[in-house]
Amino acid sequence: MMDRANPKDGGRLSRYKDRGDKTPRVLITGSSGGIGFELARSFGKRGCELIINGSHEQRLLSAKERLEKEFARPVTAVVEDLSLPGGAKALHRQVANAGIGVDILVNNAGMGLLAATDEIDFEADESLMRLNMIALVQLCKLYLPEMYRRGSGKILNIASVAAFQPGPYNSTYFASKAFVLSYSRAIRYEARRRGVDVCALCPNSTKTGFFDKEGIRTPPMSAEPQAVAEYAYHKLTRNKAVIVPGLVNNLTRAIPSGVKMRLVAMMKDMGKE
Ligand SMILES: NC(=O)c1ccc[n+]([C@@H]2O[C@H](COP(=O)([O-])OP(=O)(O)OC[C@H]3O[C@@H](n4cnc5c(N)ncnc54)[C@H](OP(=O)(O)O)[C@@H]3O)[C@@H](O)[C@H]2O)c1
Prior knowledge:
Blueprint: E1 25-28, H1 34-45, E2 49-54, H2 57-71, E3 76-79, H3 87-97, E4 104-107, H4 122-150, E5 153-158, H5 171-191, E6 196-201, H6 210-214, H7 225-237, E7 242-243, H8 247-251, H9 257-271
Parallel strand pairs: 1-2, 1-4, 2-3, 4-5, 5-6, 6-7
Helix pairs in contact: 1-7, 3-4, 4-5
The structure holds NADP nicotinamide-adenine-dinucleotide phosphate.
Residues 29-36, 53-56, 59, 81-83, 108-111, 131, 158, 160, 203, 205-206, 208-210, 213 line the site of NADP nicotinamide-adenine-dinucleotide phosphate.
């Protein structure tokens, strides 16, 4: 089957052989705003059926409205707080109860916490670890068996350039992204002969609500979320293992992680208001 909405994709989103001529169905966590919302737009533009998620009902419904208006077709919105125990299972159950199978899973929802580790609130730190790591792992484990049975599917896990070095004053966040990258590469290896592509996206700072929530200014040279999403879409369709938007971000991967760690610590100090 070709991706009918966009034949220019050369059929790369086309390995959904058991479903006749249906378009791929994409579940994107944390898609009421930021990179997740723009990823939904990128998939929506290519005719994919969208299932969006967020923890705040109003924000999610407003995103659903915007997407439905843009693409003139229904979008499924599932409110679920993935930082809560059982959140991933509840999301999977709600999507299954709606009779929707998922061809492409995008684990995008994530949060950061900025402070020295002894100053980070105990419960908030636990929420971060649940959202950034546990929910992501559990959604992979919930959807991989279905994808293996069909012999097709894609998973895009959102890590960060934070995955490439430790992050003082942002320690759990950086460590969580290193986890996402390592986990994604490992399950990619397992899935490689079973028709399922697993890719990790590692953006640098991007203009979203992310830094606001961390209590700092968005760095001035940050990328546009739309550009990050489009780049990610194209690299996912080409099954790139580790997707790093931006030439400079790719080049800086070669810098020793100890040097980068010190730079991160300096920038976090400077970014504090
Ligand atoms: N922005 C950057 O500079 C940057 C750089 C590298 C990587 N990333 C990663 O990119 C991903 C998206 O970040 P972003 O910058 O787009 O952040 P954002 O603007 O804060 O958006 C986060 C999205 O996740 C949702 N979300 C937050 N907590 C959730 C929860 N507990 N359960 C379900 N959904 C939740 C939010 O909706 P609700 O608040 O309504 O739940 C929102 O839709 C994250 O994994 C982040 O770590 C971001």
